[in-house]
Amino acid sequence: MTAADMSAFLDQEFEQVKGDFTIEHVAANQVTVRLNIQEKHLRPGGTVSGPSMFALADVSAYLVTLAMIGPEALAVTTNCSIDFMRKPAAGVDLIAHVRLLKLGRQLSVSDVLIYSEGMPAPVARASLTYAIPPAKNA
Amino acid sequence: MTAADMSAFLDQEFEQVKGDFTIEHVAANQVTVRLNIQEKHLRPGGTVSGPSMFALADVSAYLVTLAMIGPEALAVTTNCSIDFMRKPAAGVDLIAHVRLLKLGRQLSVSDVLIYSEGMPAPVARASLTYAIPPAKNA
Amino acid sequence: MTAADMSAFLDQEFEQVKGDFTIEHVAANQVTVRLNIQEKHLRPGGTVSGPSMFALADVSAYLVTLAMIGPEALAVTTNCSIDFMRKPAAGVDLIAHVRLLKLGRQLSVSDVLIYSEGMPAPVARASLTYAIPPAKNA
Amino acid sequence: MTAADMSAFLDQEFEQVKGDFTIEHVAANQVTVRLNIQEKHLRPGGTVSGPSMFALADVSAYLVTLAMIGPEALAVTTNCSIDFMRKPAAGVDLIAHVRLLKLGRQLSVSDVLIYSEGMPAPVARASLTYAIPPAKNA
After folding, report:
1. Hey, are the CB atoms on B131 and D81 less than 8 Å from each other?
2. Which of A9, A15, A16 to mutate to test the interface with B (most CBs of B within 10 A)?
3. pLDDT exceeds cutoff 60 at C136
4. Which helix (H) or strand (E) holds C5?
5. Is B120 in a helix, a strand, or coil?
6. Is the CB of residue A103 less than 8 Å away from at least one CB of chain C?
7. What is the ipTM of this complex?
8. What separation in angstroms does the CA of C55 have from each of A119, B72, B80, C46, D81?
9. How far from chain centre, in Å, is Cα C96?
10. Quick check: D28 contacting A, CB < 8 Å?
11. A19: phi > 0 → left, psi -120 to 50 → alpha, else beta; which?
12. Touching B: which chains, 3+ CB pairs < 8 A?
């Protein structure tokens, strides 16, 4: 899947988050995703909320899995471990770099580094496991 | 802090989530929190989204920490590990039961079980670490 | 499987850890396992090492899965998240209480609380996912 | 600290694991560590056990923290999340590449990729948090 294919798929399947994410770059086993920061993503002081960072990590891991197996709305997150390491910069988009570390028959495993745009040190890291529906393995 | 104290604190400090959560019960090292499901929390099919479950786990762990140390807007999540185990029932509130397992000088550790209201098996489990600001330890 | 069945299975399949663990109690979706502390499990000062606590959590989650699906040497750990919360007491056995939270076709999810024998507060908590081989699902 | 300094420190402070690990390479915020596979690290079939992989991840995260703060036997692991992705090759050493993602006053966060020597795909990934004793922050 290309970045355009993935964007179209995301808009169609997940209306609730339409406009939240931009797929910046797709390569083998890697995707870069932007969280377009809006008021709803913020906490007092303008920092990005934990759930917004989780949502970015989650969608990024989903997309890097889809990039390899094709559009599959039914892949589901089974586990996420996330470390919040630094306070995001106020009013700045977040950029997630995700790598697919394993694509098995039943599970994918990805890791994600999240940056405030323009800052050198990551604000969060996450690893996620997705369960892949059996039909896709046939 | 009582449930009413915590509700007032949450509404004041985190306007973005006002009305999302109801604190149902507070006891020593335990809090029960309801996620009042709204359209914004859902995915296609009416199931509750992963980020909404993360948000519930996160606020629950925050509240059980506050219940013991007093109002402290500056406690921050440093780690969350969450397992998504079953699909939440469509259009039903989620209930989180959180236990404080450790309250140290620098860190608190909690675990959370999340249920679809009225169903016996948990839909998710999470463990969270909060960093407690040094000022509160003095 | 009973505690005796599980002990026999463990001794036969995992010779390297023979004598390390005692299965204390088995109930529906719950098992209690003792780590019989020996010199090899310790760190300077007599405290139990992190890898020894991990090993206890891992074997406990394995056993609570086996208790429900029957002897299955091929179930494998796919994820573990562990929080080390307190220093174990010196020279004292560890006791793990494990609960099976989910037993699906492909995955089991368990959580574990580990105690130094005789102390009220847990020294560690862990959650583990095991992948169950397809053959067992037929 | 250099690789030689770290090796000497490890041998002195942790006699129980003497000879298990070789520090292969040290750079800014990065360390490479080898697990010298011995009989005690194996499971039936010659694969490396989960606790041995955990031990390698744990010591690697410890060493990359020490490399930056200096010898400090009292830094302790507070959290580890580990994904086991592939079966290690039989009878082959494991190599861990660890990166320090954050070094704060109270906590360090590292991530680790573990490889069977000579194989291109990682067998495990882990992220670890270490608590740094207050004295070192003064």
Report:
1. no
2. A16
3. no
4. helix C3-13
5. coil
6. no
7. 0.94
8. 39, 37, 22, 18, 14
9. 7
10. no
11. left
12. A, C, D
Confidence of residue A121 (pLDDT cuts 50, 70, 90): very high
With a cut of 50, which residues of chain D have pLDDT below it?
136-138
Q: Which residues of A touch B51 (CB under 8 A)?
A: 51-52, 54-55, 58
DSSP state of A42: B
Amino acid identity, position B33:
V
Residues of A in contact with B87 (CB under 8 A): 76
Which of A74, A77, A78, A111 should we substitute to test contact with C (largest number of C Cβ atoms within 10 Å)? Answer: A78
Instruction: Count the neighbouring beta carbons within 10 Å of the beta carbon of residue B15.
Output: 10
> Helix-strand-coil percent breakdown of chain C, rounded to 5?
30, 40, 35
Half-sphere CA count of C137, side-chain side, radius 13 A: 12
pTM of the predicted structure, to 2 decimals: 0.95
Which neighbouring-strand residues pair with B25? B32
φ, ψ at B121 (rounded to 5°): -95, 140
d(CA D124, CA D127) in angstroms, rounded, equals 10
The rounded distance, in Å, linking the Cα atoms of B2 and B5 is 5
**Domain range C3-131, CATH architecture:** Roll (3.10)
Residues of D in contact with C43 (CB under 8 A): 14, 16
Min Cα distance A128 → chain C (Å) is 10
Q: How far apart are CA A115 and CA A86, in angstroms?
A: 10
User: Chain C closest CA to B22's CA: distance in Å?
Assistant: 25
In chain B, the percentage of residues whose pLDDT exceeds 70 is 96
Residue C83 has pLDDT above 60, yes or no: yes
Going from N- to C-terminal start, the domains of chain B cover 3-131
Interface list for C 40-79 with A (CB within 8 A): 78-79
Helix (H) or strand (E) holding A9: helix A3-13
Of B79, B81, B106, the CB nearest to D106: B106
What are the two backbone dihedrals, phi and then psi, of residue C75, each rounded to the nearest 5 degrees? -60, 135
Residue of B nearest to D106 (CA): B106
Compute chain B's Rg from CA coordinates: 14
CA dist., res. B98 & res. B5, Å (int): 18
CA-to-CA separations, C118 to B45, B136, C48, in angstroms, rounded = 49, 31, 15
For residue D61, the model assigns a pLDDT of: 97
pLDDT of residue D43: 86
Question: What amino acid is encoded at B50 in this protein?
Answer: G
**Which residues in chain A are closer than 8 Å to B45, comparing Cβ atoms?**
none
Instruction: Fill in the DSSP letter of residue D60.
Output: H
The type of residue at C102 is K
Neighbours of chain D (3+ CB pairs under 8 A): A, B, C
